[in-house]
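Worked example 2:
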Amino acid sequence: MFFPTKGVLGWYDRQEQRFGKLPGASEADLVQSNPVWSPDGKELVFARAKAYDISRLLKLGVTVLTPQDVPEFFGGGQKFKYDLYRIPFNGGAGGTPVPVEGASGNGRSNYFPRYSPDGKWLVFTQAESFMLLQPDAALYIMPAAGGTPRKLRCNRDSMNSWHSWSSNSRWLVFSSKINGAYTQLFLTHIDAEGNDTPPVLLEQFTAPDRAANIPEFVALPPDHIKKIDTAFVPGDSYYQRAVAIISHTKAVGDREDMLKAEKLLALAVVVDPKHVQARNMYGLVLQALDRPQDAIQQWTEAIRLDPTFAEPYFSMGLLYEDALQFDKARALFEKVAKLDPSNLKARMSLAAIRLRARDTQGLAEELADILKAKPDWYPPLFHLGVLKMDSGALSEALGLFQRAVVADRQQPEAHWRLVVTCLRLGNAQDAVTGASTALELFPGDPNFMDLMAMAKAALGQYEEAEAWGLKALEGAREAQQDGAIQYISAHLKDIQARKPPSL
């Protein structure tokens, strides 16, 4: 809202290296702000309003004011209206300020004046009250000498301000919040009569979670800038742009997008070497670009910078898990579980590694705890089902596998264990139903045809069982699955001997 409590215009003499107040624009009972030079450098235009009396607030003895401290600033209770004034500079001696005709005494708040470089026009922002990006803020154009202001057609429906002229006085760039919570830049053309065109959004200056504002045209020839030094550009801006690219990637692992993100993240860690989130993201992108050692280097540095930041441990653990280096992955996942117990993916990955290693002490309780936080998540449902199945708790295992295949229908191992559990419990008809469902999802899979054969045999339907067994054996031979051929042959032999195969 830019509370109008204080504001004087000051100047700085670059040669003598000294500051001074500008007489006529440094009154204690007024707020003087937004100064802008006329093109000839002889005068300034600035915004002025009566200062708010803060004596009551000083008695509160607080540094930060709350809405309760100044209710008149909220809900439209108090209006603060700025007028534009013109004042000569006179080498820092100032003079008598004069209201700008058409931009003062109009019952509105007038602020942010900008001269066109040719001295012909003055564009300023007008709102009901206050300044900065007010909801009703709109741009107006008027002759620089004064006259009747005209609302520009380029205004968007919400918050227009922070405008700047091009050096040839034909283009105007400004900010607006028409498209969301963050300001974006728009460009309009101004002809010789001051007429403007519909605005164009400058998309290259737009980010999904960053504001673009206070733009300035710079009058330089096209080849004047040889390089842009990023020393003063925060690394987070590069990081956020990379995140935006990755979040909008149409296909996971899209190489072109990953290469764009890689360049931005490389800049982010150069500009801000201590940006641990950027280093973690950089590692993920490098991994996607098949550069695992470079990825590990970024994650290792992120951990060195902040040993309590859990994400790089998790990222590196996933890489080692994919590389089947389970001991290294386990150590990293254990670290994540201690640093961030809410990271269910890390806890689940650790549980899967422990199950693989037959380290099951307390594992069922851990998986059950994960399921409390995420009841319909496939991995803990399946792995807890395996634990229960191995321990002989078949009824519990069956319930978990039934939930698992609902959570993710495309997991063949869950369907396989569901049917096997039904057979071990003697639920032959349920086994037939489960095998039928699996064959619809995975047609021609010899493992499920074998299960169907056993289920039919359990029902005493030996001819159908033998037919399914023969189809399963044929499928295994075509797929050259030597292990499957052996156990399917054994099952078929039992069926042909008119007895259900044992599991």
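The chain is about 40% helix and 15% strand. The two ends are 75 Å apart (CA to CA).
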